[in-house]
Specification:
The chain is of the alpha+beta class and 202 residues long. The chain has three helices and 13 strands. The strands form two sheets. An eight-stranded antiparallel sheet has the order 4-5-6-7-13-12-11-10. A five-stranded mixed sheet has the order 3-2-1-8-9. The longest helix has 14 residues.
């Protein structure tokens, strides 16, 4: 072997060894939103379910719209893929929030184009974790028991495209978790995750 090539080969091997290690494709990514104990951490901002709308605006920004300007009870953050439902009281408390993970199929009832009505312009980017269970746009309803390590079970309604998650041990929860699905029901992707505070005061 040409002796002059040895230093070059040695350097090449050294740089290859010091280069960044390949990413573990199976490594779980940190959820973009985490619901825990009545509050939701979205990015670096934390907001409580049941807090006034002003607190949500402070956390998510003022770039929102109402789904129906004549009936200002559903706030849409188009660029975040988030919808929040306000109470009709003076404080306009937000007791329910939805993360839109996928655009529903055009064949679904009440379909609206992204950016119109109740449909945000963009879908939520990343996973949403609730009760330690992360879901994203590739999660199917029947994945939830496994992802929750057996803590949760799911039930899908007949006749409407809606499923819910409950504790498998039947322990009472102060919050409801619903998923908008398609006609595949248990095998459906999760199009929208809704988290709602139960027995919310007026």
């Amino acid at each position: 072997m040409n002796a002059r090539l040895l230093p070059t080969m040695t350097l090449s091997l050294l740089f290859a060894a010091c280069g960044p290690a390949p990413q573990d494709e199976g490594k779980e990514q940190k959820p973009a939103a985490v619901f825990e104990n009545g509050s939701i951490l979205i990015g670096s901002q934390r907001v409580e379910l049941g807090a006034p709308a002003d607190a949500w605006i402070a956390a998510l920004g003022s770039n929102y719209r109402f789904a129906d300007p004549e009936l200002p009870i559903m706030m849409i953050w188009d660029e975040l893929g988030i919808a929040a439902y306000t109470s009709p009281t003076k404080e306009h408390r937000i007791n329910s929030v939805s993360f839109v993970l996928r655009v529903p199929p055009k064949s679904s009832g009440g379909y609206e184009h992204p950016g119109e009505g109740i449909q945000p312009r963009r879908t939520f980017s990343g996973a949403v974790s609730f009760l330690g269970t992360p879901v994203n746009k590739t999660t199917q309803v029947d994945d939830i028991p496994r992802l929750s390590k057996g803590v949760l079970e799911v039930h899908c309604s007949h006749g409407i495209a809606l499923c819910s998650a409950n504790r498998a041990d039947q322990a009472k929860l102060d919050y409801s978790f619903h998923f908008t699905v398609d006609d595949q029901r248990y095998s459906s992707y999760i199009y929208k995750l809704n988290i709602e505070k139960d027995s919310a005061p007026d």
